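Try this one yourself first.
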């Protein structure tokens, strides 16, 4: 491609982006479909549809002006699902299926239908779909339409509150990637997680509040927001643990508590530092092998008081995966009475690294496997937070 052709394409893209931004100003905050139609017109497509991923990342539903166009349909065995799962563009005859991804978080799939073979605008199509994602992310906060479409089942008030607490399910930087998931997505109670990719470090936490329903959500919300407050005020992990512990004890009483892992990763050195608040130990996968649980002597769960027993450290290597999880994963039970177990969990992680599956897709598949294991629905919350350490410098994988 010559320099003049590159210049023309750049000018065309610039005009298209300006047209999209102008259309954004002309639509009310609920007008996400107005942006989709603007993309359709700019690309000369006959039809454009957005397939929104549900909370469990197991189904898609077509977006309309008032929410879902029809009932949700499974990812598996569909063209849109194939594009979503693989994260790749799928082209069939006159139709393009483009994953809508915000950084590493997968939102859904854009379907563009052309009357004939698509024009030679492949880069333009992918670039404008990326701009569309940014507009969707900025607009979905102002309306219920997107979140209404995300639900493939009835959601409890407790789950609604818990999902509003969460950061994006996946994020990535040059040095690290993080991916999380919650199940049962529409009835989640006391489990939650949090993370922030800050300059030079990844801060994270996973928590499991005693009980279920709204009372458990109130405790996990208290802990997550307390930990956020501590780190944003430049406090230490120890400060975060002590403040959350005091808040639970003061506001909920002696019989209530929250277990968890509170951690920070120095992305330059790979040093992971964490406090174990009476929680399950994280798992380490290194060089395609399960390297065991990362050991840290437990302090008391937050809310029960007591000293910090240990602040543990582990130096991660390039390519290491660390999985933080709650007991609803490993202790889920099949109808025949068999537990999912740590061995099965570790084996799944190892196979995912060897197969080159992304962290975000790994936790999605693992969550689906736990659901298939229990068959009739989880009896406890099952939450995962997966950290992939890439390291720094040109040798990063």
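Now uncover the answer:
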């Amino acid at each position: 491609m010559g320099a003049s052709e590159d210049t023309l394409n750049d000018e065309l893209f610039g005009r298209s982006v300006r047209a999209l931004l102008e259309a954004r100003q002309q639509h009310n905050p609920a007008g996400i479909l107005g942006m989709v139609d603007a993309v359709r017109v700019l690309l000369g497509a006959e039809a454009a549809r957005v397939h929104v991923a549900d909370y469990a990342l197991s189904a898609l539903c077509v977006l309309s002006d008032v929410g879902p166009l029809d009932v949700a349909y499974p990812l598996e065995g569909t063209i849109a699902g194939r594009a979503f799962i693989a994260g790749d563009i799928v082209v069939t005859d006159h139709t393009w299926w483009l994953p809508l991804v915000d950084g590493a978080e997968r939102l859904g799939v854009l379907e563009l239908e052309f009357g004939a073979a698509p024009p030679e605008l492949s880069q333009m199509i992918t670039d404008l779909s990326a701009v569309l994602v940014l507009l969707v992310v900025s607009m979905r906060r102002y309306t219920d339409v997107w979140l209404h479409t995300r639900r493939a089942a009835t959601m409890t008030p407790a789950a609604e509150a818990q999902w509003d607490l969460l950061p994006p399910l996946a994020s990535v930087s040059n040095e690290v990637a993080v991916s999380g998931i919650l199940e049962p997505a529409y009835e989640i109670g006391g489990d939650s997680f949090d993370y922030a990719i800050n300059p030079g470090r990844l801060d994270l936490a996973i928590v499991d509040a005693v009980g279920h329903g709204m009372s458990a959500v109130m405790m996990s919300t208290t802990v997550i927001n307390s930990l956020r407050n501590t780190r944003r005020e430049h406090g230490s992990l120890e400060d975060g643990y002590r403040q959350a512990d005091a808040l639970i004890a003061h506001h909920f009483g002696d019989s209530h508590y929250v277990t968890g892992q509170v951690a920070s990763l120095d992305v330059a050195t790979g040093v992971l530092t964490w406090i174990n608040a009476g929680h399950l130990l994280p798992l380490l996968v290194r060089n395609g092998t399960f390297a065991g649980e990362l050991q840290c002597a437990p302090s008391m769960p937050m809310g029960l008081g007591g000293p910090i027993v240990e602040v543990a450290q582990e130096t991660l290597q390039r390519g290491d995966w660390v999985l933080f999880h709650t007991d609803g994963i490993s202790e889920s039970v099949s109808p025949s009475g068999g537990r999912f177990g740590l061995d099965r969990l570790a084996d799944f992680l190892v196979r995912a690294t060897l197969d080159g599956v992304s962290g975000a897709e790994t936790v999605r598949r693992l969550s689906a496997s736990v659901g298939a294991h229990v068959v009739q629905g989880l009896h406890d919350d099952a939450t995962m937070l997966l950290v992939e350490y890439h390291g720094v410098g040109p040798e990063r994988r």
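Discussion: The CA atoms of residues 61 and 72 lie 4 Å apart. The chain has two domains: 3-150, 157-389.
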